[in-house]
Predict the structure.
Amino acid sequence: MKHIFTIHSPLTFLIAYSIIKLKKISDSDAIIISSGYRPTIELNCVKRSFQNINVSFFSKIKTWNVPLAFDKYINNLTDGQEFIAYIDLMAMYQRILISNPKCKNFNFIEEGSASYSKPTNIDVITHAFRKVPYRYVKFRDFSKSLKFMMRGYSLRLLAMSYFPGSYSHFKDIKYYCLSNDAYPGVENNKKIVLNLKDNLELTSKMAINTYLNNQIIWIEDSFTRAYGMSDKKYQKAILGTINYLKKNETHSKIYLKLRPNQLIEQSLVYNILVEKKFEVEALNNELIIEALLTNSNQCLLLGNVSSVLFYAPLFGHKSLSMFNLLKEKPKTVFDDFDVFWKNIKKI
C-alpha cells in the first residue's frame, strides 16, 4: 500500500514527514507530491507535482483531459498499487487524487492558519471556484465554467466541497494537525495532534542548524502590500511596536525574518530599526522559520498577521501583533478570526 501526501509549503512538508515517521511508513511506500515548493532537504520520496511538470503549451495540449492524465501520473508514481491519500487542501488535483479508483482512503493534513477558520458563507465552501460566478450574465462568465468541462472535469468533481470539515462524517477519515483548535467543527476523536519536536534531526537541518533562545524575532509579511496600505501607515505601526519594545523589553538586538525573495534594503522594518539604534540581524532566507521555532526556546515573535505568529505559541514561544496599530485598514478575515488571536497578544 502506497501513501501519497500533497504539500505546498514548508509546514505541510514537516507535517507530512511527521506522519510518515509516526505511522512508520517505509521509504518505498511514501510519496510526497510537492506543488510550488521544493523542500530544502533532499528525499527520494519527494516528487514534482503534475501541474509543475506540465507547464508548457505542448504539455497542456497533451494532458488536455486533466483527470485522465493525472490518473496516469499517479499510476506511474505508485506502479499501479492502491494507496491512501493525505491532502493539504480539497482543490482540483486533490479531488482527482481521492476519486482515483486505487485510492482506498484519504485524510487531511493541516496546511496553515486557514485550517483554523470556519466556513461563513458558500464562497468559502466552494473556494476552488471563486472566480466562477453564480450567474452567467456575460459569455465570459459561461466560458469560465465551460473550460472545466472541456478539460475533462465531471459534474461530480466540480460539486465536491473545498472545505475539509465537509468530510468529517466519513467513517475512517483523520485530520492530522498541530492543535485541537484546528478544523473547527470536527470532533476531536478524528484529530491526531502531531509534535514537530519529535523530528529534531530534520528540523535542525531545515533551520540550517540555527538555534535561538530568549531572543526577539520580527516577521515581515505582505499584509499591507496585499491590501494597498501606504508605507506611512505601516511605518506608524512599526514605530508603535518599537515604542512597546522599549517600554517592555530589554533586548537591543532583533532577528529579522524577511519575506521570501525580499532584499534587506527593501524592508521598511529593517530601515526603521537601524534608524532607532537597534542591532538587527537578518536570518538566512533559506532558513525555514517553522523549523527554527521547533529548535529554539522562549523567543518573542513580532509581526502582523503572519501564520508564524500563530504557530509560535504552539512551539513554546510568545507572539505580539501590530494589527491594532495599523489604522484605517480594510476589513479582512483576521478581524473575526478568534482562534487566530487565541495565543497572540495585540499591542
About this structure: The chain has a mean pLDDT of 92. The CA atoms of residues 63 and 318 lie 48 Å apart. The two ends are 50 Å apart (CA to CA).
